[in-house]
Amino acid sequence: MSFLLALLINNAYAQHNAAPPFITGVVKDESGQTIPGATVSIKGTSVYTSTDLDGRFSIPAGKDLPFTIQVGITGFQQQEIDIYELTEEPAEVALKTANVLDEVVVIGYGTQKKGDLTGSVSSVPQLVLKQPISSFDRALQGAAAGVQVTQSSGQPGSAVSIRIRGGNSITGGNEPLYVIDGFPVYNNNADASAGVTNGPSINALASLNPSDIESIDVLKDASATAIYGSRGANGVVIITTKKGKAGQNSFTYDAYYGTQKVLKKVDVMTNARDWALLKNDARANSGKAPYYTQDQLDKLTGGTDWQDEAFQSAPIQNHQLSFTGGDDRTRYSVSGNYFRQDGVLKHTDFERYSGRINLDRDFSAKFKVGVNLTASKIESSVANAGIVNALLSMPPTVNVRDANGKYTYQSEFETPLGNPIATLEKEINRTKTYRFLGNVYGEYTFIEGLVGKISFGADVINNKQNRYIPSDIYQGANSNPTGKAYVGTRFSSTWLNENTLSYSKTLNDRHAFNIVVGYTQQAFETESATAGSQSFITDQLTYNDLGSGSVYTQPESGSSAWALNSFLGRINYTLAQKYIFTVRGRADGSSRFGKDKKWGYFPSAAFAWNIYKEEFLSGARTISNLKFRLSAGVTGNQEIGQYLSLATLNSNTYFFGGQTYIGFSPNRIANPDLGWETTAQYDAGIDLSLFKNKVNFVFDAYYKKTTNLLLNVPVPYTTGQTTALQNYGSVENKGIELGINTENFTGVFSWNTNFVFSLNRNKVLTLGDGADYIISGANIAKVGQPLGTFYGYKTNGLFQTGDDIANLPTINPATTKPGDRRYVDINGDGKITQADDRTLIGNAQPKFQGGITNTFSFLNFDLSLFFQGTYGNKLFNQNKQQLELLTGQQNASTAAYDRWTPANPGNVVQRAFEDPAPVNTSRYVEDASFLRFKNLTIGYNLPKSIASKIHANHIKIYVSAQNLFTITRYTGYDPEVSRNEQSTLNQGIDYSVYPGSKSFLGGLNITF
Questions:
Q1: Which of 334, 665, 712, 803 has the fewest beta carbons under 10 Å from its own?
Q2: What is the spatial distance between Cα 225 and Cα 585, in angstroms, rounded to a whole number?
Q3: How large is the C-alpha radius of gyration of the chain?
Q4: What was the pLDDT predicted at 98?
Q5: Considering only CA atoms, which of 184, 185, 182, 186 is closest in space to residue 243?
Q6: Alpha helix (H) ranges present in 3-49?
Q7: Average pLDDT value for residue range 83-89
């Protein structure tokens, strides 16, 4: 396609040589729509600008004729225009939609065009980043193939668990490495928590404002992650924040306000009389007299719905101010943000203040420096970990307040429960975190293609937590002394120095080289302290005067540190733009491992074949791109605690002669051979584009095997210990991923679709030293089975009247009665035992997962729809297990209406009984597959004629809804949950988890 190009030179230049010559024009796409934000530069100089919101630009010529103008923007092919003379016509530049291969993604220590990639990299769509979320990691839900995101709590600002291509480790870390503007961060929430609050952890990553993020790229295979060596086994998420551009300066105000409500309620008994009948039934089946007389039953009306008392319609709001711009040498981006989210549980919240400065300065054509700084304060009131369980368990016969208007102290029954509404309102359970994250760099071009870069960075986290349990609520007065206060602090700091040298060269338009070598060093240190006191005369001072308590709790303090030194390298070689070879590697020396295993070596190699460049496809009209990729490599995992390879001592308290003494005893034996968990990964992929890049496919198949697992292995008692951390065992993951992006319509009406799909199969291969399984609660890690497997009894109904119970397999024949649960006799020995009859009863890992996003635009309107879902995953519904005990001492599920009685000999819900033992059975393993309408957003861009009346360049208003509805058979609050935040062994447990919410909001975006 040819382009009509004309240039307008200011008349002042022709008349006054001292005035700078300017070139003005407009940039449009193939349909004639103007393109804002396009970069216009003079080739070979540092002179450049960007188009405004109307697609217009103005740039000084910068050098004598002839010269070349370069025009480009992401998503379009860059154009170069040779200028030999000056004319008086404005320039009109039409850009073609870019080939998918020309899009640039961020990789480890650099960027690459997609056409040059040999590894597996996924980019999160820009639309997803605009969701109203407290932390950016939540934006990965359903947005990138091969990435599974599970929330551990609906608490505002709480942490999530992320798995990229499955979990590799059983006891080590499984979270990915985050690289924020070049600074590597592992999201270990323990490093940002003083350990005083009781409840879900607040996510340290929530300190970063999601509105500041320009792009998120996920590195998945060994070719992409090996350059991060010992921290690349779980994948790498690269975060790039927004940078300034030369040209017109802009000021943007972006805000939204909305409300939230709980996704759903759990069905429990709310009628006081019905629960009283259950209470009497449980006592009768236990051989006791009724608790309620008939007269009392007749007087019972209504009942307390404790969930209704606790849940609220909660506001959420966000306000952002941004200043961006620059000139031919300096670019800047400055932003300030305020975000507040109240929880759907009363008296819970999350609040963030943050500011960011990104500054780049070209001191010359060869030397430039840059600064990326962010500072934030986050503060949250956290729900007590037992609140949800208390809400579900509190009987409806108990009132929230007594006759005097005071909070009811506790339930009156055998299982005492504190008033959860009083706990929510009166208990102080607050955490506050200040974070500074930043780096500065200098970059120097020695000769064309040879660039050296040095950067220094720091990540400083200061956390303060306060907790006070007043004496007039159950938790603060259930023992003597009354009233309890705790204060804790943790200060963590990380510093980083990276030094890299890169060289790029193309020979004869056939041989292209890109080489990167580097040396990095990083060190971490943390200090913490906690103190507490009890028995206060007054609750007025809360935690602010620990000395006023008459009984002090034992103070605690600690510190730890680690360091990492690394050498890294990457070589990319491309032959004739067809054959691409990549070799990457890193050597890491970590202080965390034994003296004989400090250093680990992590190489990778990859090959890509751009098949569409071959002559035999030169005439193909359908195929726009076809590339085949192969990669193999090794990465590691160092995410264990500090000093675990060393023999250590533990303090103990002893009592002699009425006196207290402190002594020390060994609590760990040394292991100088403690080394890395190592993950070998193999990947094969195909990239295919059809119909002039209107339809794009990315397909990957992979296999991962992690060996030398870090496990606590039994050791002889003669060592003085029972277990020691050693390298034993192996786990595999294998799966496929598919991404499809289509441009269905373009022009005045446009419609784009983005679809991601992935499945992963996980298996424990060995556990070392003859071990076959590790049991932890309702979960088991068993050789030949996936992690996240549930372990318990299979149930096959209830015993009925007339059954010969004495001759049937039971756990306890002496106490078993009609209406009790039956269990499957797995080994057929006629009895039910833990050792022989517990078996595998489900798994938390999905068979597949995916997400689909559709975006539409017509004239000034735009619409986006985002669906996300998983299939085949199970949850162990421990809430349901507790609610179906039917003890009459706590509330019960509405399933109790169908409980077994002689008059209702059902075969599903057991009889009421005062003292049953909770048993892990298949009854409580539920299908947690779901399809969720994750986001709906409708926007309207006001006409420029209206915006200009307030001197604005652009105004957009929009309405949005999140988690609008969920299709699932799961009976709990939310199928997308797991109580244990970052545990791979204990995953898929739903117990007393803060429920999720749906939100509705309206927003405004104004740019001046």
A1: 665
A2: 9
A3: 32
A4: 61
A5: 182
A6: 11-15
A7: 66
Nearest-5° Cα angle at 714, 708 to 717: 145
Where does residue 33 fall: left (phi above 0), alpha (psi -120 to 50 degrees), or beta otherwise?
Answer: beta
Higher local confidence (pLDDT), 38 or 750: 750
User: Does 537 score more than 80 pLDDT?
Assistant: yes
pLDDT per position as a tens digit, 315-369: 999 999 999 988 878 899 999 999 999 999 999 999 999 999 999 999 998 999 9
Residue-wise pLDDT tens digits, 450-504: 999 999 999 999 999 999 999 888 877 655 557 899 999 999 999 999 999 999 9
Give the distance from CA 548 to its chain's centroid: 42
Residues 6+ apart with CB under 8 A from 294: none
Q: Which long-range contacts (CB under 8 A, 24 or more apart) does 505-508 make?
A: 505/449
Beta bridge partners of 321: 253, 336
Long-range contacts of 94-98 (CB under 8 A, 24+ apart): 94/1, 94/3, 94/4, 94/28, 94/29, 94/30, 95/27, 95/28, 95/29, 95/30, 95/35, 95/38, 95/71, 96/1, 96/30, 97/29, 97/30, 97/692, 97/693, 98/74, 98/693
Q: How many CA atoms lie within 13 A of 904 on its CB side?
A: 11
Task: Supply 756's token pair.
Answer: 């991601």
DSSP string, 247-287: EEEEEEEEEEEEEEEES----B---HHHHHHHHHHHHHHTT
> What is the predicted pLDDT for the residue at 724?
83
How many other C-beta atoms can be found within 10 angstroms of the C-beta atom of residue 178? 20
Chain centroid offset of residue 907 CA: 41
Percentage of the chain modeled with pLDDT above 70: 94
Per DSSP, what are the bridge partners of residue 239?
180, 216
Task: Give yes or no for a contact between 194 and 253, defined as CB atoms under 8 angstroms apart.
Answer: no
